[in-house]
Amino acid sequence: MKRQHEQRWAVTTSFSETLRNATWADHQSAESEGYLSALMGGRLSEHDYGEMVAQHYFAYTALDTVSRRLADHPVAGRFVFPELYREPALERDLATIYGPSWRDRIAPSKSTSTLVARIHQVSDWPGGYVAHHYTRYLGDLSGGQFIRMELQKIYGYAKGGGVDFYFFDELGSLPRFKNEYRSRLDVLGLELDEREQQRMIGEVKLAYQLNTEVLTELRHVVKAAA
Q1: Is residue 129 in a domain?
Q2: How many domains are there within the chain?
Q3: Domain range holding 156?
Q4: Which pLDDT band, with edges at 50, 70 and 90, does 23 fall under?
Q5: Where along this sequence does the record place binding of heme b (predicted)?
Q6: What is the overall mean pLDDT for the chain?
Q7: pLDDT score for 30
Q8: DSSP H/E element including 214
Q9: The whole model's pTM is what?
Q10: Angle ∠(97,102,103) on CA atoms, nearest 5
Q11: DSSP designation for 44
């Protein structure tokens, strides 16, 4: 009697799913921070909201600067989309919130300075750059859209300043773009060995942590507003 062999079906998970699953707890932690809860609850002034916009400005200036430098890189360049650059939008938002002298009103927090330093530190490692790019932009294109709608209700902003950071009109369909982005992540995952995949997953988790610390440091705004 022939020995029967059980067929084993391999269950594969795409690299984009692996990244998402590996950081899901971190993602939830970032969303539950006190500052963001107070902001979404309409308990902060327009200038209190500007505190977060200012930190975004310094972080995205770094990210967009690195993106421009890596535009022709054979790996990192696949994730460089000029349509995503946020500096001009953030400048309009800050001018709306603080007026024409907005540059004199803002400064990077300690946590933001740490995040900016890390973005520059890993800029010569494609996986590191993509880790920070993915962490910020996929969040902006997903949960960030809910934040925009709530901020528009709370502060009455329209296009032209205040929440322009969250508008990505040049991308067209956001779901289609996000699917394309995830497809590029999946291709990248196939090109990486297991060690490099784990290294990149670790950097994504670190990126979430650093961004969460920026929100944590903004808790002083909530205390002052109480």
Answers
A1: yes
A2: 1
A3: 50-225
A4: confident
A5: 20, 27, 134, 182
A6: 91
A7: 52
A8: helix 194-217
A9: 0.90
A10: 150
A11: S
